[in-house]
Amino acid sequence: MSLLKPQLPKIGMLYLDHVLRFFDRSNFQGWPDKIEQVIYHWGNDKQRFINEVKQKKIDVLIGNIPATAYETFRDIARALPDVTFIPSLDSQFSNKSKENVTHFCEKYQLPIPKTHIFYQPDEALAYLRDAEYPKIVKRSYGPSNYGGYFVHKVDTLDEAVRLFSERRYFPAYIQDFVPMKADIRVMLVGHQPVCAFWRRPPEGEWLTNTSQGGSMDYQDVPREVLDLAVRVSKAAQAEYWACDIAVSTKDEYTILECATAFAAFPYIRDWIGQYLMWQLAPEQFNKPYFADRNWEELGKVDSSLLRTMRHIQFGHASESTDTGEYAPADEHYSLLNTYHEQAEEWPSEAWNFQDMNKGKLKHSYFGQTIEQAKKNPIDGRDLSELNLSEFNLDTGIEDLSRLNNCVDDIQGGTDPQDTTDDTQQALVVEPQQLVKFFMSVKGIGHGLATEIVDTLGVDGTLRILNDQPEQLMTFRNLKQKKLDAILCQWRECELLN
């Protein structure tokens, strides 16, 4: 009599229109059953999405949720109590905003730059008037920093006021400036570091983003940085995780960013798939093994090859001495299972400060009406010079909903769709619209514009424009100057402001 194998949970890939897919079926090589996919189409799609998950009898939904959909998926997860979300909504709490990263780090006493968050402009101004400079101002909410384009160093009160008058970030997210010699990104699977690399700023600069001229290398990442990243991953109870850790000029370490959503080569996504298959069905899949500091050797491979390498596996070394004694295992970090709590750690009713405070916001700039602001000098300057317009917050949640405005301007004007769900609109973007956008940038012709869109597709092009614009420089004849022009045009389309 043959023994029946235990039934496997039914996996579904969680996808969203216009969002680059982190996983696909090939990352789960060897999973014997059909892997479903469920796509959230924005607009009024919440109930249809819930019904489709139920109809397909999905047990596990795997995929990252972008910041703009996070609160919607809090509701969806509550409506699907028998479905396991990987990563959990609690693990993805830090994905939503930098203010959430701050709350997370403060709760678990993790080192971060001293940070102040203000939901009322007059409170932010009161702080800035007495603050010591320089300060770092960041856009808290939204898909990403766009390669550092939403991180600003202000050296005076006047610079800070001018910045907020132009950008109107909400909330005001202000950090102490930490003189850095570099930062380090650490990627983890099952709380084990599987990749780590330095990002160093150009000489005389402070931003480390490669799109801003920074350099990167994989050698000699300090053990203390890896230990800190493991500690952060365990606090988040995340199956996979990434941390950006600042290294100050005094060799002190602070967390800049952390999330389950990060750029990763395909072989790392394969490793996450191996881990998740073992986690979901340990009777049928072996626990994967990732060699300690494997990145020091893999990092020597040209990045164009790393982007195509798949399903890399490591074997355990079995060293011994002539006397038959086995050498001790050199295993600094164990691959650990992760467990989700039944109760919500970060319920939106308690932690969605942005939406809770937006309704209470005074319609004034830094606590004054616009007319008062024009008359009252700050730091010896007349604020009428600041070109104060109607108070219009940059919450970071309008990016997708304004896409129609941009493509309409390029195309000649069409009526936007008016079906909304929270802050989102249902969007249909055609390849030719994106080609026309690129061709509107000086120095980009039809050939290069078509190559970009054909190579990346609509979803990939939107994702890279919004999240990883530096990747456009992998295309022929597209260097930093053209990238800056593309991003300038992207902002002028009111996608980002």
TrEMBL record:
Alphabetical GO biological process terms: SOS response
SUPFAM superfamilies: Glutathione synthetase ATP-binding domain-like
Molecular-function GO terms, alphabetical: ATP binding; metal ion binding; ribosomal S6-glutamic acid ligase activity
Domain of life: Bacteria
Transmembrane parts of this sequence: none
Matches recorded under Gene3D superfamilies: ATP-grasp fold, A domain, ATP-grasp fold, B domain
Record key words, sorted: ATP-binding, Manganese, Nucleotide-binding
GO terms under cellular component: cytoplasm
Stored PROSITE patterns: ATP_GRASP
Domain spans labelled ATP-grasp: 102-285
Name used for this protein in its record: ATP-grasp domain-containing protein
Taxonomic lineage: Bacteria, Pseudomonadati, Pseudomonadota, Gammaproteobacteria, Vibrionales
